[in-house]
Amino acid sequence: MSQRARCIVAGVLALALLAPAPSPGAADGQITWATHFTLAPTFFDPAETPGLITPFILLYALHDALVKPMPGKSMAPSLAESWSVSSDGLVYEFVLRKGTKFHTGDPVTAEDVKFSFERYRGIFVRALKEHVASVETPDAGRVRFRLKKPWPDFLLHYATPATGAGWIVPKKYVERVGEDGFKKAPVGAGPYRFVSFTPGVELVLEAFDGYWRKAPAVKRIVFKAVPDGSTRLAGLKRGDADIAYGFDGTLADEVRRTPGLTLRPTPFTSTHWLVFADQWDPKSPWHDRRVRLAANHAVNHQAINQAEALGFAKITGSIIPSSYEFYWQPPPYAYDPARAKQLLAEAGYPNGFDAGDFWCDAGTSSASEALLNDLQAAGIRTRLRPLERAAFLKAYQDKKLKNIIYGLSGTAGNAATRIDAFVASTGTFAYGGYPDIDGLHREQASELDPKKREVILKRIQQLMHEKAMFLPVWQFVVLQGVGPRVAESGLGLITDYPWSAPYEDVRLKDR
Prior knowledge:
CATH architecture of the largest domain: 3-Layer(aba) Sandwich
Structural class: alpha+beta
Strand content: 15-25%
Largest sheet: 10 strands, mixed
CATH superfamily of the largest domain: Periplasmic binding protein-like II
Strand order of the largest sheet: 8-9-10-1-11-16-12-15-13-14
Number of strands: 18
Shape: globular
CATH class of the largest domain: Alpha Beta
Number of helices: 16
Number of domains: 2
CATH topology of the largest domain: D-Maltodextrin-Binding Protein, domain 2
């Protein structure tokens, strides 16, 4: 192994030495994003996507997928130029696009696709591995997935941001540098290549002129971690950031009123809800349906929407986005504090009770505080426990949180994928389950008749509502700020996707 390769393994050598030199004048300028969460190396790796849309902020820049959502298409050919499905629904074959390459200059091959799938360990790893019998590579330009039985949701899991399994990393590079080396210096096939990362502070990427779709218009893009909203807004006003993500209602209104800045509400398939994590513990107050129902009646959704999202969010009453296939519209829980107190009294808590800790991603603290205040007014007393996003997701997935959890997901999918991850007892983020729901969940997974499957999935959603398993908050909209230098922010170009993308389409104004 050469000295340079040994340095890569140690994560010391910058990838600028590996990538082809950009052609003069191919890109110009710099755009800086201020993110509402702390940057973490796990977000550089498609294999570790956790059921949130957050990592795709970086994946759309660093990496590419066989198939992914793009402007005008929910499943657009990317590294794969085409795909086909056998008549029995058991074989999916992808034909790779000629001339695609990684930032190292190596071509994207079928072996890289197979390696990336087998390496995937994110939220839906169990579902994918249970359904896929084998991945075959008949030649360097073709990949064939053989299923154990027909699975109507294969492409939904593989060809959308429901998972990162279809986002391709270079086999030779990962095996050479190891998992830790890959996180220190990630290599992908996306429009931008890695330059540097300062943990928790910023990620710097540079345009990759070898990108197959087109060369990016902006030479350098920077992601700065700015979890505090007021600080993000101040940076946007000063010009330290060109695009800033995730403002609450008060700060978003200030963006709207500031000359030179533009407010961009960006709707997408993100629902937020409260998880009653201890409802399966007979000793917990949450075990009583009346207590869970009381919590639902205690929350003034419209007031929170207006205060926290300027009224742009959608109140759906479900953890499943209204645009999803097989969505069932539940009857709303009326805001009724008196009814909430009555239900608590009937459950044996006439003076309310101490509900312990209220866990949330720090980025949702403002909305969490509003929910906490409504619960407390009804007698459900709790303490807010915000965690940095990566730590929150790890603790949530590892089932280490108790009492109340602020759950959310903005990944692609349908009603079945949300139920699989958050409702069925086998779900990655499920803290328990109910036998009737689990039985129906297993039944729908193998049902190939869409109409019959719809009936089953809607029945599951009815049971979720009847049991008051969750406290649905809203279908979220991200309130973003855009500065005066930006000609095309990329926000809203991809339907139901909240962040800037595709990055190669982002442009600065002519000077």
